[in-house]
Amino acid sequence: QARLVESGGGVVQPGTSLRLSCVVSGVTLDRFAMHWIRQAPGKGLDWLAQSSVHGDIKFYADSVKGRFTISRDNANNTLYLEMNDLRPEDTATYYCVSDYDSSGVGWFDPWGQGTVVTVSS
Amino acid sequence: DIQLTQSPSSLSASLGDRVTLTCRTSENVGEYLNWYQQKPGRAPQLLVFKGSALQSGVPSRFGGSGSGTEFTLIISSLQLDDFATYLCQQSYSLPYTFGRGTILEIK
User: Fold this and answer.
1) Closest Cα in chain B to A39
2) Spatial contact of A40 and A97, defined as CB atoms under 8 Å apart
3) CB-CB neighbours of B50 under 10 Å
4) A106 to B100: CB separation less than 8 angstroms, yes or no
């Protein structure tokens, strides 16, 4: 049974950077495509980024393209989200999420518990 | 981006009721529509994928159907654990998008 645990959230000022980490246990990370998804307070879910199994193919939502970078270290079973030029509208709970399959079919299970990022001056 | 519209936005129901939740997509997504359950303060959990395939471990009282632009999630007999928010999500094309959810409350 896979378990995903995010860390790295916090309160930061606009324009600064933050790196989120997601440690995967119970399975080897190199079996699954991976995603980051966020949920702003009281809002819906927004898919942000996808990484292929080997990290060579990446896709991003327009809202974060050029500012956020998804990466992975399969040897250490860890997924990352590097976030630059943070804005108040990036305030949200950020979820690390496994794709159902190595090929990236686009449905999500399991999810981490989330880490909260607050961007405020 | 493909827009997903869920109805109703909220629903009050009683234990044992049969409920039907609907998700409509702005474009044809074939069978690539998935359903999640989310409880307050928790991450979503996958219930149904590819329109009608039940995720392992999900009770058989949950069922999904539909294709194209209209999909339904049916809960055949509501249990206490089922009162939550239900979200649909399309996996037909990037960016993957979610509906705003149906909040299922106890009457």
Assistant:
1) B43
2) no
3) 16
4) no
Quote the minimal CA–CA distance from B86 to chain A in Å.
11
Cβ within 8 Å, pair B101-A108:
no
pLDDT of residue A38: 98
Q: What CA–CA distance (Å, rounded) separates A77 from B9?
A: 38
For residue B54, CA distances in Å to A9, A42, A63, A111, B95 come to 33, 28, 32, 17, 24
- The shortest C-alpha distance from B63 to chain A (Å) reads 17
Mean pLDDT of A23-36: 95
- pLDDT above 90: residue B33: yes
Residues from chain A contacting residue B49 (CB–CB below 8 Å): 100, 107
Taking CB atoms and an 8 Å cutoff, what residues of chain B touch A45? 44, 87, 89, 98
pLDDT band of A102, cuts 50, 70, 90: confident
Assign A103 a pLDDT band (cuts: 50, 70, 90): confident
Q: Rounded mean pLDDT of chain B? A: 97
Percent of chain A at pLDDT > 70 equals 100
* Alpha carbons A5 and A54: distance in angstroms, whole number: 20
What is the total residue count of chain B? 107
Q: Compute the nearest-CA separation of B77 from chain A (Å).
A: 25
Q: Which two tokens stand for residue A27?
A: 């399975």
Q: What are phi and psi of A42, to 5 degrees?
A: 70, 10
Yes or no, beta carbons of A44 and B96 under 8 Å apart: no
